[in-house]
Specification:
There is one protein chain. By secondary structure, the chain is of the alpha+beta class. It folds into two domains: 50 residues, no CATH class; 94 residues, no CATH class. The chain is elongated, with a radius of gyration of 20 Å.
Length: 148
């Protein structure tokens, strides 16, 4: 029988507090080269436009307007911009880590409060998603472009 730490659960996590499964890290070089060839073929057919630029990264900070300008400057049409927030939030994560290190107390990775609380936050995030200015409050942003 396999131990729970060696097999990911339904959400892709290893063990109760383990890391997340990243299937692309498990691909063989042959599979990666086949996928690269597939992407190249799709680009040649006009389904994917190679931009030859990296617009995002951990060390790089952009606003949505800057990302959209980079996409347009690359000769693409902006289809849409999107964003999402860190859930649970940073303060919960900090408190969770401090308690774990200081007292050994373990708070859940993905806390679920009462239904009225979770539903309220989800409604609030849904309302914000419909406001362009709210993209400036997102932890992760992106812009999708297509060939003109």
């Amino acid at each position: 029988m396999t131990s729970p730490a060696t097999v990911p659960d339904a959400t892709g996590h290893f063990g109760r507090y383990g890391g997340r499964l990243a299937p692309e890290a498990l691909m063989s070089p042959t599979v990666r080269s086949l996928l690269s060839a597939e992407v190249g073929q799709r680009a040649a057919e006009g389904h994917i436009g190679p931009v030859n630029r990296w617009f995002a990264g951990w060390e790089t900070q952009f606003t949505v307007d800057e990302l959209e300008r980079l996409v347009r400057d690359s000769g693409l049409e902006v289809v849409r911009s999107y964003g999402d927030w860190m859930v649970p939030g940073l303060w919960y994560r900090v408190v969770r880590e401090v308690l774990k290190r200081g007292t050994g107390a373990r708070l859940p990775l993905d806390p679920r409060g009462p239904a009225w609380w979770s539903n309220g936050w989800e409604r609030w995030r849904g309302w914000l998603r419909r406001r362009r200015w709210a993209l400036n409050t997102c932890h992760v942003i992106g812009t999708v472009g297509k060939r003109r």
